[in-house]
Amino acid sequence: MDHDEARAKLLDTAEELFYARGIQAVGMDAIRSGSGVSLKRLYQCFPAKSDLVEAYLRRRDERWRRSLAEYVGAQPPAEAVPAVFDWLRQWFSEDDFRGCAFINSFGELGEGAPGVARVVREHKDLVRDYLRTVAGSDELGDQIFALLEGATVIAGITGDPGAADRAKAAAETLVRAASTR
Question: InterPro entries, from UniProt (predicted)?
Fold first, then answer.
């Protein structure tokens, strides 16, 4: 197994286990055995668990933001903001939805893992910047971002995908109010 194949298997396993169980509950041996990668190769790919966590989050960030942008981009521009919340509802309805991997990771590790905290902040900054573009203004984008984050936390805690619908209704109210200014 070459380095790239091992890295991909390790990241696949890490994502599955970290997201389902939490980072601190999953040891490197579980990643090794779940991936079928030797311990030596694991540490060649990721010298420390924090390196693996950061890589897992970066890969998840790229996939998550790409999926959101593709969904929203397929909608008419006037429907872009509501589409964000339609996409969220679909995500919240997935069987393996466990909330936001970035919030969960920061909640577990916080500032004690500065590299992870940096990746989490970068993700949140990129999402906020994207929503500012979708909304057409920084102020409205920041408000949409707050609704997205709140809905995600609520859905993660309660298991209720309807949090996206309530946030969508609030976002539509904000969009209407912004258009009358």
Answer: Homeodomain-like_sf, HTH_TetR, Tet_transcr_reg_TetR-rel_C_sf
Residue 36 CA to residue 49 CA, distance in Å, equals: 17
Give the torsion sign (CA, 149, 150, 154, 159).
Answer: negative
Domains, the chain: 1-47 (1.10.10), 57-179 (1.10.357.10)
Give the separation between CA 68 and CA 89, rounded to whole angstroms: 11
CA 5 to chain centre: 24
**Are the CB atoms for 123 and 102 separated by under 8 Å?**
yes
Alpha helices in the chain (DSSP H): 3-21, 28-35, 39-45, 49-73, 80-92, 101-109, 114-135, 138-158, 162-179
- What pTM value is reported for the model? 0.94
The Cα 181–Cα 165 span in angstroms is 25
pLDDT tens digits, one per residue of 133-175: 999 999 999 999 999 999 999 999 999 999 999 999 999 999 9
